[in-house]
Design a protein that fits this description.
The structure is a homodimer of 363-residue chains. By secondary structure, chain A is α/β, with parallel strands linked by helices. Chain A folds into two domains: 151 residues, Isopropylmalate Dehydrogenase; 160 residues, Isopropylmalate Dehydrogenase (3-Layer(aba) Sandwich), CATH 3.40.718. Helix content of chain A is 45%, strand content 15%. Chain A contains twelve helices and eleven strands. Chain A has an eleven-stranded mixed sheet, sandwiched between helices. In chain A, β10 and β11 form a beta hairpin. In chain A, α3 packs across α5 and α4 packs parallel to α5. The interface between A and B is large, with 59 and 59 residues.
Chain lengths: 363, 363
């Protein structure tokens, strides 16, 4: 689908503040992103005095509207504190543009916990969702080059109905974000045998077997940590504690290997020469493993699309993340997920909720 | 410490059956391991008819005693089934050599779940231990090249007193297995802030702050998945579900990177030439990342040392794993851990046990 073919305008709400590299990196990323997307318009939330000169320097400045916000969410702010006192922040303001229908998606590189708490408060959970989730792309051996893992850390826990919802939401994301017709969904466990794992996993296993048709995915059963980057599965479902540990362990392992590789190519004159000869291939390799390409966790299970860009995003990685927000907005992703989630609920009706469930009053 | 300097004999009990590659790989591994260790003697458990010709071909055959066992634990056998019916298996027999005091350590490349269940049943838990753990070595940026992670999958859950015990046992293993005087212990969590994570983690955090002196380690606080291969910490403590997922995710990521590297060097004539030039450095790199070097999970918290070698162990990796068993046996590792665990108990006396605790009647 070519951008702008249908004459529609796609409006994205951007929190310009709160990233480690400041608003200059965000605005530079906007410039990269917008130059090939004539139908994109931006609502840019933050300090007007800071943003005005940055935006004025961009060729696409006419498609950017600055909306002033006095305050900024800091990386050290506790989510609960921001929910109580953050009304004047650029993050709050950016989310309210989606809440009010002025924008189709919101993006921020600020504090993840605060963004999830504010998103849940301002946009509300989608019908049937108790725990929203963060979905992230993971480099893999599949043709698209990526798998999707969720929850990557929105909530510490997930019971069986939550995991079922994650499967529905993750499969929707795979269809819309990776163009996969019938994505394969796996449930992360410590073994692939049916009798293994915690009670909520065995219960979720049964739910997924029944619900796969309605969810428009194929359930491949339990998968293990080693399958996350494999081509056996497209969507990996787990609770936010396990997902977050897995994500960071994968990143840490890739960093370790990268360091060993650099050491390797620096060993002696022959290996240095080899590094020069392999320059093109090495560049491609680095590109494949570049965490900036997979930048952007997508919040699922809310009445609106929210993308979290990495706190240390530079212009390139911010452009990648906002492209994701734009693609999902163009596809009417929020509405598509909501339609699927409505089906998911029918599989868990009458099912007992676990004792440790979050307060569902807000759902 | 040179092998055999003190004239002592180190007896290791070996389960010859049950690995994917069969007893030939185990016996070949024994040959590699024993040739430089004149003080090592082996009790080799399995089918006499199969083992006799294999052993007869080894120069070290005089130091190997075959002990016949009719039966073999299969990879597909459920642990509970083996505990009830596995008396005639080579695994059971190998463990009983340690139980009876005939050997100082036991090693097997069979079914992990069955080995843990049988080890717990035959050797019993050490005093004060409710949940034994599997500790594994993880390639890292530390000078030794390794960090220790536990529990890598013995039990799905761990409460605060379990995590405290893991810290004591892991620190002992770091002192004895990595020669670290005062190892640094970290608790795996989804953030490093004190208020983050599950209740049992915050409780364990407090216990570790108090107990670090008595445990002979430095507690560095919460660590994240990305820190597992780092030089910020030597021992990473977590529950068996999370540890198993992290371990397999790390292995999967390393495999993905390895595949991408191979593809990279095969891209074109220049990169192929580069691969030839970098041959020595690449070989060193492969050696560093070779999972066979870190083969061997050690079971901690039992009255005896048990090493689990990988199911697909070849001769090289089996030799590496049995060397670990030998080193720990020489050091009197079981007794040293037991002495530490006795101190650990004093920190959790009067502490409430969580509702989901395992049956401690067997402790």
């Amino acid at each position: 689908m070519g951008a702008g073919d249908d004459g529609r305008e796609i409006v994205i709400s951007v929190d310009a503040m709160g990233g480690d590299k400041g608003p200059a990196a965000v605005v530079a990323g906007l410039g990269l992103f917008m130059k090939d997307r004539a139908d994109a318009r931006i609502l840019l939330h933050g300090d007007t005095a800071t943003l005005t000169p940055l935006v004025a320097a961009l060729p696409v400045k006419d498609r950017i509207t600055i909306i002033h916000a006095d305050d900024v969410v800091q990386m050290t702010d506790k989510p609960a504190h921001i929910v109580r006192t953050g009304k004047a922040t650029s993050m709050w303001s950016a989310l309210d543009s989606v809440r009010d229908g002025a924008a189709a998606a919101c993006i921020s590189c600020g504090n993840t916990g605060a963004l999830m708490a504010l998103s849940t408060m301002r946009l509300r959970r989608a019908v049937g969702v108790k725990r929203p989730a963060i979905a992230c792309m993971w480099p893999s051996l599949n043709p698209s080059g990526f798998n999707i893992l969720l929850d990557a850390g929105a909530d510490l826990k997930a019971d069986a109905p939550d995991l079922l919802n994650y499967a529905f939401m993750g499969a929707s994301y795979a269809r819309n974000g990776l163009n996969l017709e019938g994505p394969r969904v796996g449930l992360l466990n410590v073994g692939t045998e049916e009798h293994k794992g915690r009670a909520e996993l065995r219960e979720a296993h049964e739910l997924l077997l029944q619900a796969q048709g309605a969810g428009g995915f194929t359930y491949v059963g339990f998968v293990e940590g080693g399958d996350i980057p494999s081509d056996k599965v497209d969507v990996i479902v787990t609770d936010g504690f396990t997902g977050n540990v897995a994500l960071k362990t994968g990143e840490g392992t890739a960093r370790l290997v990268g360091k060993m590789l650099r050491d390797m190519f620096g060993t002696n004159i022959l290996s240095k020469l080899a590094a020069i000869l392999a320059y093109g291939a090495l560049k491609k390799f680095r590109h494949q493993m570049d965490p900036r390409r997979v930048n952007g966790g997508v919040f699922l299970g809310l009445n609106g699309t929210v993308v979290k860009s990495h706190g240390s995003s530079d212009a390139t990685s911010f452009a990648a993340a906002i492209s994701q927000a734009y693609d999902l907005a163009r596809m009417g992703f929020t509405e598509r997920v909501a339609a699927r989630l409505a089906t998911s609920a029918s599989f868990t009706q009458g099912l007992e909720q676990s004792d440790d469930s979050a307060d569902p009053a807000d759902a």
